[in-house]
Each structure stands twice: as C-alpha cells, then as structure tokens.
Design a protein that fits this description.
The chain has 600 residues and is of the alpha+beta class. The chain has two domains: 13-46; 54-512 and 565-600, Glutamine Phosphoribosylpyrophosphate, subunit 1, domain 1 (4-Layer Sandwich). It contains 19 helices and 20 strands.
Length: 600
C-alpha cells in the first residue's frame, strides 16, 4: 500500500500554501477516505452475485437437455430453453409426457424478481360427468378412467409453449420447437425404459389404430436401439410453431384430435378445445430454516403439502436425530399433510381452498403438537371427515440461465403412455388425467390417493395434481428441483429440500433414498435399501406399518424398487458456480453446465 500514500494528491495545487501540519492532517483524511473506499469495495465483493457465471440445465434425457442448451447458445433465455426442453421431452419421453398432456412451470424472472406459476394442467371435458365412470352395478369403471378417450382431459402443454414464448421468451416458436421437430422427424434411439413401459401397456396401446401406426413397425413393437421416428408428431409441432395456439386448438390438428376421440366413443367439443387457456397463478412461498421456499399452488396439491410438512418439521433439528426418529417425525408430517390433501384441495377456480390456514405456521404448530415423539399416529385416528376451517409417468427439468432466470417444470400424461390413444394423423398421445379427479368419492385412484367434492370433475375444471416444481433460496445457495412419481412427488421433493438443508450437493440430493406416507393406506413405503433393517425394526416398534420391497419379514409386500427421476440445479452464490443433479435411477444422460453462456 505504500506506493499510493506518499504522493496521493499532496503536491496538487489544492494543497499549495498549507503548513506541513495541515498537509499531514489532510493526508490522513484522504488516506482514511481511500482505505474506506477499499473496505467498501471489499464489502461489495462479499455480497452474493446477482446472476450466475453461466447456465445449467438438468433434464431426464440428454437430447432434451441439448435442445435447451441450443436455445441458450442462440441467445435465448431460460424460458426459451424451457420450451425447447419440454418439447423435446414430449418427443423422446412419450412414456412420461407430451403434447397430449399438461404441466406446471414455475418461473423466476431475474429482471423483475417476480416468481410466477404457469398452470397448463389439463381440463375436464363437459361430457366427463362422474356417472360416466361407473359400471352398471355402480362400481368404479377403472378401465374407462385410465384408458382411451374418456380418460383424457383437454391438453394444456401446447398452450404453455405459446404463452411462455409470447410473454417471457426472446426467441420465436419456430426456433424453440425446431429441435423437437427434428427429433420427431429423424428419430432417436429407443432406450430400455420405453420398451419396459410399452410391454406393460401393450394391450391398451394396441387397441387403437392411431397408436398402432406409431408404435408398431411391420406388426412388431419397438426394440431397444431402434430409431423411433414420429412424422405425424413432427407435422403437428410444425403447425404449432407456424400458427401458435390455432395450430393445435383449432384447424386441421384440432379436427383430427376431435375425430380420433369420437371414433373411440369419447365426446370432446371443438368449443372446449379452442377455449383452453393456461392460468398464471401466484406461487406459494414460506420460510424454512433460513431458506425461502417457492413452490406450486393449487391445482397442485404439492405446495400446500410441502409448506405444511416443512413447517411441522422445523420444530425439530432433524440433523441431530437418529435415522429412526428422523424418519418417524418426517412420516408423521407426511401423514397429516396427505390427510388435508384428501379433503381440501382442488382447482381454485372452482372450490374455495383454506390455503392461508393450511400453509400457516400456527396450523403447523397445532399439527406438530399431535405428534408423539416415539409412537406412530394411526391414520384412522386422524379425522376422516372434513373439519371446520407420478415414477415413469411424469418428467421434470430444472434450468438456471446466466441472467439468473429460473424454471422448474414438471409435465405429464399421467400413467405410463397416458391413455394409450393417439388420434390418427396427429402423433399426439393423449393423457389419462381424468383419473386424477375424484371420479367416485372415497375411491383411491391409480396412485392410491382419495378425494371428495373438492376434486370432483366439472366442465373446464382442472384435476388435482401432485406435481411440485420448487425453488429454494438462501443467502448462499439457490436450488431448482422437482421430480415425477405420482403422489410420491410431494414427499420426494420434501426429502430433496431436507437434503439441501443438510448441506448436500445437487447430485447427492438427486440420489437420496426415498420413503413415503400418504395417510391412506396407513404404511410407510420405501425404495429398496432406503431403510436399513435395524431402522425398520425400530419403526415397527413405534407402531408404523411398513411396505418394503423384498422385505416381507418387516411387513412389506414389495413396492417398486426405485422411484422418481429427480432433476435439480444448484447455484452456489459464494463461489458463483453452477452444478446439476440428475437422478441415477432413470435419467438418460446427465445435466449440463454452460460456463461460457453469459448474460445478454
């Protein structure tokens, strides 16, 4: 520092005529100002950066990630990358999502600091009354709820592409949809999960001529390594890119969709197809142990449940607990949140939801007080009446760009390959989201969750969802995460949030072992190896029922060995570095960090 001090301004005309003493005093003042400016500069450098030094994308398929990366390299932002990634997933993951389905997009606009939730959930056709899903004897017609035209809601994903391109993106749809169009036209290698899924749904898929035309080649189903081309889907995407909303919801594509549904006995109308609109909603936000959590509002059930569970759990320091008690308390929070999901949650455009109460600290404190630290609460002791007041079937991706814009998006066709129905000439595999309504009150759906009047179908109503795209923000870290997995989505995101709070990195969060409780049935489900045998014994002694794969001795009947496909990106603001976490269970490829992509 000596090289600055001896001559710093003291020989300038301003100091001429000063006595030595006054020049010395003035020099001390200037030196003080100089060093203060350095201290201020150091303080500024300690502030977290306003945006990352690059961009990151994590999705369930490397070709979808590459589509998003391509948009960023072409000058697009996170929202353009989200359209491209989503559309590419719609081509390469028909088992999980597609133009015939819907999704939720949680967006953060770095320029305004605003978070917004784009609701592209499917809607109920007017003809889909509850009585249409009953057999003559009054039993629930599960086949109609899960397969074919009556299972399908009006798709929302194409409208989301148009909405985000018009309002948030920099690039036109012709650019953002180009990678998906190329993948559909030129094809991509078939991977094992597509083959497994098709084998499990073959009897349904091959009911419909439009589906057979896409998935069968000379009468044979696709094999791993085959190149899967979808020319009809490429043409549908091209029409959407050229004409926007009218390229899907009106005109030739719409006519083919309506004809294909009608040919199989379904009843959609041109008016309800043309009338579909996305909804922008205010996300749910709350605090958890120094994190600001931003997540999904209804018609997602995930955000309220996540707020409820985390605010119950913040009464304990989970990091100091032994594994059995940590799982016990977490499960008790899950149990209570899923009970409330059953009775209160639905489409907020149709039902009044006590959101403020359910997501409040006071309500969480009251629920916490009902939890015994060493004993399970039997679910039938929690009121079954209202009180006053998705694994391979879905996909998720997470994005942060160099401007600090963020996207957490979860999209789906519901069950594996949706309804199984492709209207001829469209390439569009329709969803089977109608099963997510309470089609028969109190009857569990395909994921075992129940519902009542709040989630009963009505024309234009959106079915309740478990999709839970989520942001986490602390002074040091920002995370974007979400996963498929049916009703287990909510608890997998919960465990991911807890993992980040434990200090794990993105890949460790994506790989966390998973367990779940949803009030009814009254049992803890878990992946293979997620709960050690000694811990399972302790939980059973506390009164918990267990469903552990391959562990019938511990009470399990053998649930799925792996769950979900969590995709997450993490921005470490201390080092201004990005990282991705892609689930090792089902991901084809890995996420990508682009340090060279700068803010524009």
């Amino acid at each position: 520092m000596q090289m600055f001090a001896p001559t710093f301004g003291l020989r300038s005309p301003a100091f001429a005529g000063m006595t030595a003493e006054r020049r010395f005093a003035a020099g001390l003042l200037l030196a003080g100002l100089f060093f203060s400016s350095f201290a201020f500069a150091d303080a500024r450098r300690e502030q977290p950066p306003s945006h990352p030094d690059g961009a990151a994308i994590a999705s369930a398929h490397t070709l979808a990630t590459a589509a998003g990366v391509q948009m960023l390299r072409q000058g697009g932002n996170a929202f353009d990358a989200a359209i491209a990634t989503s559309a590419a997933l719609s081509v390469v993951e028909p088992i999980s999502s597609g133009l015939g389905g819907g999704g939720f997009f949680l967006l953060h606009d770095a320029k305004t600091g605003k978070d917004v939730f784009v609701d592209a959930r499917e809607t109920a056709p007017a003809a889909a009354k509850p009585e249409e899903y009953l057999l003559e004897n009054g039993d629930f017609n599960r086949d109609r709820a899960e397969n074919g035209p009556w299972a399908a809601g009006i798709p929302g994903l194409p409208a989301a592409f148009v909405h985000m391109a018009d309002k948030y993106g920099r690039l036109p749809l012709k650019t953002t949809l180009a990678p998906a169009i190329k993948l559909a036209r030129e094809g991509f290698p078939v991977y094992a999960r597509l083959v497994r899924g098709y084998a499990s749904r073959r009897a349904v898929m091959e009911r419909y001529p439009g589906t057979r035309a896409v998935f069968l080649v000379n009468g044979a189903s696709l094999k791993e390594g085959d190149i899967f081309k979808q020319p009809d889907l490429a043409r549908t995407l091209e029409t959407l890119a050229a004409k926007g909303r009218d390229g899907f919801y009106r005109g030739e594509v719409a006519e083919k969709l309506l004809a294909g549904v009608a040919a199989e006995g379904g009843r959609w109308t041109a008016q309800e197809l043309a009338g579909y609109r996305v909804r922008e909603r205010e996300p749910i936000s709350f605090q958890y142990r120094g994190w600001r959590v931003v997540t999904s509002p209804p018609p997602s059930s995930g955000g309220i449940a996540l707020a409820e569970m985390l605010q119950i759990l913040q009464g304990w320091d989970l990091r100091k607990l032994d594994p059995a008690h940590r799982i016990h308390l977490t499960v008790e929070a899950m149990r209570r949140a899923f009970r409330d999901r059953t009775f209160y949650l639905g489409d907020p455009d149709f039902v009044k939801i006590p959101q403020r109460v359910l997501s409040s600290l006071d309500y969480a404190a009251g629920l916490r007080a009902t939890i015994h630290p060493d004993k399970a609460t039997p679910s039938d002791l929690l009121s079954g009446e209202e009180t006053p007041l998705e694994d391979e079937e879905t996909t998720h991706f997470s994005i942060i760009d160099a401007d600090g814009n963020r996207v957490a998006a979860t999209q789906t066709v519901n069950l594996t390959y949706g309804s199984g129905l492709i209207p001829p000439g469209t390439g569009v595999l329709l969803n089977d989201e109608m099963d997510d309504f309470a089609l028969k009150p109190g009857t569990p759906n395909a994921f075992g969750v129940m519902g009542y009047d709040a989630n009963a179908p009505k024309p234009g109503k959106r079915m309740l969802s478990s999709m839970t795209p989520t942001f986490m923000e602390s002074p040091d870290r920002v995370a974007v995460l979400g996963t498929p997995g049916g009703s287990r989505i909510i608890t997998m995101v919960l465990l991911g949030v807890l993992g980040y709070d434990d200090g794990l990195d993105a890949q460790a969060v994506a790989a966390l072992p998973r367990y779940h409780h949803q009030w009814m049935p009254d049992e803890i489900e878990a992946e293979s190896g997620a709960i050690a045998p000694a811990v399972a014994t302790e939980l059973k002694a506390m009164g918990h029922g267990l469903d552990l794969p391959g562990d019938e001795a511990a009470g399990g009947r053998g649930s799925s060995h792996v769950w979900g496909n969590l995709q997450t990106v993490l921005w470490d603001r201390k080092t201004n570095t990005l990282s991705t976490g892609s689930d090792p269970r089902n991901t084809v490829g890995r996420g990508e960090v682009l340090e060279a992509v700068k803010a524009k």
